Structure prediction request, 109 residues.
Amino acid sequence: MPRKARRPPETPEQLELGQYLRTLREYAGRTTYEMSYSNSTISEVENGIKFPSMTLLLEYATFCHGDPEREKELDRLHWAAVKARREFKGKIVNIEQSSAKRRMLLESY
Prediction:
């Protein structure tokens, strides 16, 4: 049976955040099995497919071990991903609104 095609990351910023989270986890010497979330959730977050919940993000933050530089980088990447995600979701809404307007125009003819 062929494998499902992997979904691409929503935004490059989300992928960058996921890669940094993976780096933090590996640096701490933790495996995905040692996390409090399922392997599939961890994989999707670290591959930029799924946006991390705040509780998952806080779990990764513990891997910074109080290092202010790592915490600052995690914070920067998180907020960049949040901003990009909002813009991405806004574009989807605009596309859906445009499609609805087009359908209404076509139906009126």
User: Anything to note?
Assistant: The chain is about 65% helix and 0% strand. The two ends are 47 Å apart (CA to CA). Residues 68-108 form the longest helix (41 residues). The chain has a mean pLDDT of 82.
